[in-house]
Each structure stands twice: as C-alpha cells, then as structure tokens.
Amino acid sequence: MIEQRIRDSFARQSMMQTLGAEFASVGTGTVTISAPILPGSRQQHGVAHAALSFAIGDSAAGYAALTLMPEDSEVMTAEMKINLLAPGAGDMLRATGQVIKPGRRLIIVTAEVHAITGEDEKLIALLQGTMVPVAA
Amino acid sequence: MIEQRIRDSFARQSMMQTLGAEFASVGTGTVTISAPILPGSRQQHGVAHAALSFAIGDSAAGYAALTLMPEDSEVMTAEMKINLLAPGAGDMLRATGQVIKPGRRLIIVTAEVHAITGEDEKLIALLQGTMVPVAA
Amino acid sequence: MIEQRIRDSFARQSMMQTLGAEFASVGTGTVTISAPILPGSRQQHGVAHAALSFAIGDSAAGYAALTLMPEDSEVMTAEMKINLLAPGAGDMLRATGQVIKPGRRLIIVTAEVHAITGEDEKLIALLQGTMVPVAA
Amino acid sequence: MIEQRIRDSFARQSMMQTLGAEFASVGTGTVTISAPILPGSRQQHGVAHAALSFAIGDSAAGYAALTLMPEDSEVMTAEMKINLLAPGAGDMLRATGQVIKPGRRLIIVTAEVHAITGEDEKLIALLQGTMVPVAA
Hints:
Four copies of one chain form a homotetramer.
Chain A: H1 2-12, H2 14-18, E1 22-27, E2 30-36, H3 50-66, E3 73-84, E4 92-101, E5 107-117, E6 120-135
Antiparallel strand pairs in A: 1-2, 2-4, 3-6, 4-5, 5-6
C-alpha cells in the first residue's frame, strides 16, 4: 500500500527525524508534511532556517511524486527552486507537495510551505521542481 | 571586521550547529562552509539529504553576499534554485558561495557543493539565487 | 485606469508584436496573454520555441504584478524559472500570470502556459519568479 | 561532424532567425550565440526584452549539450532559470552556454548572457537548467 511505502521511506530519512518532521497526510499525487520550528532549526534571528522550509517542501513534493510511481521505483530530486515569501515564524511549518505532471522520465512538482500560528496560516515559501524516477 | 561579523552571525544559526557545519574560509565576495554527513543528515539511501546541500550552499551564498554589505545590513534569501548533480556520498560536503553581482536591492549569488572523499572532490550540487539586504 | 496603463505598456513592447501576442484579459493580480505559434516562433521540430512560452509567461506574470502597483511604478523581472511540461503544439498558446505575494520590494509571481487546440487545452509550461518595482 | 549538425538544427529554429541570432562559436560542451537587439526584440523601455536573453541563453545551453550527444540524439529543455542582472542595452547580446554535467538522462547546463557595446561587455543574465536527451 502506497501510504505504508511512503511512511517506511520517510522513516529511513534521518534528516526528517533530525528536523522533527512528520507526515500529516498522504493522497494520490499529494503529500503533506509538518515540522515544528525546533531550537536547532533556526537562522540567526530565531525564525525557521530556509533549509527547514526547503527540506519539508522538497520531501513533500518528492513523496507526492512517489504516490504515482510503480512499486519498484523511487524518486530523486533533480532540481528544485524555492521562493521565500515571509519569515518562518509560528508554532510550526506545514508543507504540501503536489504533482503537476507525472511522466516516465520527469515528474514536475510544486510545494507550498505555510507557517501555522494557532488558527492562522501564512504562506511562507513556494517550490517548483523536477523529480526523476530511480530503480528502488 | 567582516570575518568576525560573519562568524558571529553563523554561530547564531542553530541549524548550522545541528548539521555540524563550519566555516572553511571567508574572502571578499566568497565564503566556504563545510559539513560532515552526520548520521542525522541523511536521506533514505544513507547519503546526504538534498536539504544538507541546500543548507550549506544557501548559507555560503548568503554569507558571500554579507561580505560586501555595510555593517548595519544583513541579507536574506529571496529565492534559490538547486540542481542536484550526483548523490552526496563521501567524507564530507563543502559549499563555496560567490557573489556574481552585488546590488543595493538584489545580490545575485551562486554556490557549488562538492562531496569530498579523501583527496577526491566531486561536484554534487549547483545553486543560483538572489539575496536581499535587510536592516540588521 | 489600470487596464489602459497595461495595454499602453504592452503596446510599447515590440517583442510582443514580433511574436503576435495579445492581451486576453486583465484582472486584479492576474493577466492573460495569448499568442499564435507563428511560422517565425518555432524550434527545429516545428512546435513553439521555449522562448515563446517564456516570453508570454513572463509578460503575463509581470503585468499581473503591475495591476497591483501604484501609478508611478513599473516592474522588471528579477528572475524567472520555467519548467517545460509538453511540446508547444496547437492552434495557439495562452499564458495566465498571477501574483502570489505582492510586496514593496519583491513581488512573487507564477504563470501557467497552455497550448490550445480547438476546445482542448494542455498545460505546457509552469513559471515561478520575482518581479521588482521600478520608478516609471 | 558536430558543428555541421548544430548549424543544421539551428537553421531549422525559425525563432532564431526571427531574433537575428547567429552562432559565434562551437566547442566541445560549449556554444556561443550572438544576436542584435532588433527593433522588434525590445521591451517597453527600448532595451532588449528578457525573452531575447532567455532565447539565446537557452539555445546556447541546449546546443552546448548537443555537442556531447550521440548522432541519433537531440536535446530538449526540461527547465531553465534565468536571473536578470542588468538591462539589455548595447550593440548586441552574446550568450555562452556550457555543460556542467553530462548524463544519460539529464544534462546540467549554464549560460551567461553579455551585452556588448564596442569593446565593453557586461554580464546581464545568468541561466542554470536541465536538458534531456530525445531520440532524433
């Protein structure tokens, strides 16, 4: 089952544990990952480091691609662009990855990263990139 | 002195400590940062997570920009694109950031990330992006 | 009136005339531009050149930003990334630009380019970039 | 012979003729293309349209990739990012494309675009992207 495969793969990504990241949801062509802004995930002004937004945005996009792949395939990021829209301040970050166009050789993906503060959510980063299938 | 300012700022970026990153060198318009591939910085196949290359590449590029800024300014990443060329396998990673075009409003930067194995070094990632000055 | 300002600016962009591009619609924070695939706008296989998708996608995104600017301002592209999803084949191309986040110093924009064939439309390119305000 | 193959392909790209673009040089893994700033290639302030820099930068990068491909292959742009550093003003533009990393599935490329005015040359755009091989 795809959700289990993705959870297994995620569990092996030690960087995700280091950052405290967790799956929030998995759907066909879309995956959501959340992460607290840990004391060890900050830049010099105390808000989330850009690398935290990148890490969970890229992973959400990659796992979104993986939901559409055959069982013997994995994906790798070929390239990713991130625009940072606002400081990563709040209770936690949440990244939602989405497949824009699946393909046999290239999978085009996007992700949005929101900072969550209580009931509020604010878009803080936008990612657009390319995943490539690799044999598992 | 610019090197001290940069080392102070770096020391306040807890994400850099989490990833074990260190300054390797600071020059005018160029900064080099190295990082081990810690057990907690990996993806599901045991090599460096793309977010590690992004983190040190983006920081090297940002601090390269900072070397050209007046004392009362800092910089922030507006956008960054990373192409991943090869898996991040080796003893450590080293990112070299460089200012391509300084400006009052936008500073265009690039960074290269190499994986170092003994005497060997292999280019594993290329970054191109924009830093913006902010009041310190 | 904003639509007139945009039409005047567009009329001065000789590249848009060269490519046969026209405004399809102008809304607050969104602009649509269409262009035929002229005999002189093609790549070596006879479909639309990537530069045509870029040209109308970038312009649609830039004018989308301009709809939100004060009268004495214009915008300039600081950076733009395009992912090409499918060949540009069809009767015409249509680019829809959208402002994701307006700002005093940076305006984050996206654009989608579709190829139109009769009633069909196919997403062929996705753009994500940054516009900067400049004094008119 | 590779130079002839590239000149033949270039001759079939009608967009290059529309923009007045010409090959300046072809080497292994690097290609240079120049273009005048034609009256029909401008933006609203009379300097070169960003799409002109994109068009010749992307083509120079693509043909640089093609110099490394077997005879029965062509390349296509998968994605390209452009940072615009300065207005495209001068006698002409010149784009130099370069292969950073060749590959069987992905070829990572960069390009620089300079504006030439008499003896002066000024870097006006930087591109970084991915080409994919396709059967000819």
